[in-house]
Amino acid sequence: KAGVTQTPRYLIKTRGQQVTLSCSPISGHRSVSWYQQTPGQGLQFLFEYFSETQRNKGNFPGRFSGRQFSNSRSEMNVSTLELGDSALYLCASSFTGGVSTDTQYFGPGTRLTVL
Amino acid sequence: AQRVTQPEKLLSVFKGAPVELKCNYSYSGSPELFWYVQYSRQRLQLLLRHISRESIKGFTADLNKGETSFHLKKPFAQEEDSAMYYCALSVTMNSGYSTLTFGKGTMLLVSP
Question: Which of A87-108 are b and which e, b meaning 16 or more Cβ less than 10 Å from the residue's Cβ?
């Protein structure tokens, strides 16, 4: 089975721009979670989608948004980029999500640099 | 609020030495904890979960609710154990569904 894929792998943007990141889950997985990873804060939960619905949301400003399509692929969008948004953005998929017994499988991440 | 604390950013040991990676948590609900590992140039992956009570690659972890800890242990470290280790707590959100809260990670370096 192919693993979780994320595109693009690297992005460089300037302050004020917006960016869209994409995540394709493992086939059959319907839950997709997004995390932001930075050296200072570590891994922080952004949001989780299941069956095209946002089921959980972390403590991030409204500039961070996402969506999920009927094929379970997910995108996240960050508008009005700030320098502090520079991070590795990780996507994880699981069969149903939302329960601790459901293992999350992580993608390689998208490295976003905001200049 | 829930929190996962890994007090050591870096743990350096020699091959064959015992290893203990510390993890403490704060959570008002029933805790379910995990250890994730990220080897160099690889993806973050699940190492073990406390409910399975299993040993993976020689690592074990016991949930101690009294001390709110979930330390990861291995009696004899190997060079291939060098990696970043994250402790994670499953947290039930207002939605009724769970997400993971991660600690900031501990880098384990095993020297020959």
Answer: bebbbbbbbebbebeeebbbbb
